[in-house]
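Workshop exercise sheet. Pairs work together: one partner reads the sequence aloud, the other fills in the structure field after running the prediction. Swap roles for the next sheet.
Pair: D.N. / O.F.
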Amino acid sequence: MRIFREVYEFLKAGSIAHAKWDYEVSMSILRNRRKLLTLFIMTLPILLISLAGAGDMLGKKEAYAPAFYSTDIFMISIAIGLCAGLITGCIGAGGGFIITPALMAAGVKGILAVGTDLFHIFAKAIMGTAVHKKLGNVSVKLAVAFLVGSAGGTFIGGALNKALYDFDPLMSEAFISLVYAVLLGFLGFYALIDFIKSSRAGDTGDAHGGSSGMTGMAKKVQAFKLAPMITFDEDIEKGGRKISGVIVAMGGIVVGFMAAIMGVGGGFITFPMFVYVFGVSSMTTVGTDILQIIFTAGLAAISQYAIYGYVFYTLAMGMLIGSLIGIQVGALTTKVVKGIHIRGFYAVSILAGFVNRVAVLPKKMVELEMIDMSKTTVKTIESAGNVVFWIVVAAFAVWVISKFITNIDKLRGEDEHVAAVLAKEEA
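Structure field:
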C-alpha cells in the first residue's frame, strides 16, 4: 500500500503544479489587453464559422469531426472549458483531467479529443506564459536533455494513438478511455479516502505542507553515474548537483508519451518527476516545466495530431475562452469556501470522470467482440455514466458560481483592500 500512496502523492503534486501553471498563464492573458485582443481576433472567425454550422478542422479531415457539427458543440466546448477552469481555479488541481473525458462524453472521438486538448494547452501556453520571468533559473543542459526525450515520447505516443485508430477506431476509443479510467480511478479513490480521513479528524484542509529537502529516490538517481553527466543547481549547492543526461532524457520520454496519449500536456508529471525523482530545485523545475509544456504540447499537437486532422480548432478556442473565465471565478471563490469542501469536490469530480470512462468500456468491448452483452444493457450503462458525470460537473459549477455571486460584495471589498495596500507600499 505504501508504494500506491507514494504514487498518489506524486500524481497529486503534479496535478497541483499543473493547475498553478494554468492559473498563472490564464491570469497573464486576462490582465493583458493585447493578449485579450489577440484572443478576440482568433475567436471571431470561429464564431462566424460556428454560426454558419461548419466545423474548423486543422489538417482538413472533416471525417474525424463530430457526426453532426452545430453551434451547440461550440457552446458545449465553452462550457467544458468553464467547468475545467472552475475546478482548476477553485480546487487547485484536477481540472485538466476532465477535459478529454468531457469532450468524449459530448460525442467527440477520443483521438480528436486528445489532439484538441493538446492544441488548447499549446495555445494557452503561447499566449499566456511570461517566459522571460522564469528562465533565469533554467539549466540549459538539463532542459535540452529532457526536451530531446519528450520529443521522442510525443512521437511514440502519437504513433500509438494513430496506429490504434487506423487499425480500428473502436480500439482507439477503448484504449483512451481505459487510460483515463485507470488514472482517474486511482486519483479519485485515494482523494476520497483522504477527504473522509480529514473530515473525521477535523482537518479543515486549509494548510498545505511539504518537504524541502531531496528525497531518498532522488539521491539514488543522482548517485547513478552514466555519461553524460549534467551539473545543475550550482547556486543552491556548492559544486552543484549532478545527474545522468540519459536518465533525464528517459524521464522526458515518459512525459512526452503521456502528453501525446492523454492530451494533458505532460505538465502534471514533470514537476513531481523533477523534484521528487531527479532532485532538482523548485525554482529550476518551474522554468523547465514552462519550456516543457510549450515544446511538448506544441510538438504533439501539431506534428502528431493537427497535420492528420485530429485537432478541432473551433472547440480548442471554445475551451480556452471558457477556461479563462472559469479559472478566475474559481480562484476568487476559494476565498469564501472551506478547504475541506474543496478537497471533497476534488475527489468527487475526479471520480465522476472515472465513472464516465468506465461506463463506456462495456459498449466498446461488445463492439470489439471481446464480451457478450445485450445492446440495451451496454447502452444503459453508458447513459448512466454520462448522466452521473454531467450532473456532478454541473452541480459543482452551479455551487461555485452561486458562492461567487452571493459573496461578490465581500470579494470586491477584499480586492479593493489589497489594491489600497499595494498602492500605499508603492507610495
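Discussion prompt: The chain has one domain: 2-426. What would you look at next?
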